[in-house]
Amino acid sequence: MVKGIIFDADGTLLNSMPIWENLGELYLKSMGIEAKQGLGEVLFTMSLPQAARYLIQEYHLNLTEEEIIDGLNREIEEYYAKKVPLKEGVRSFLEGFRELHIPMVIATTGDRKNLEEALKRLGIRNLFEGILTCTEMQTDKSKPDIYLAAALQMDCDPDEVIVFEDAYHAIVTAKKAGFITVGVYDQANDRDLAKIWNTADVYLPGYDDFQKFWWSMTEKGEDEV
Question: Of 34, 50, 82, which marks where a domain is finished?
Answer without folding.
Answer: 82
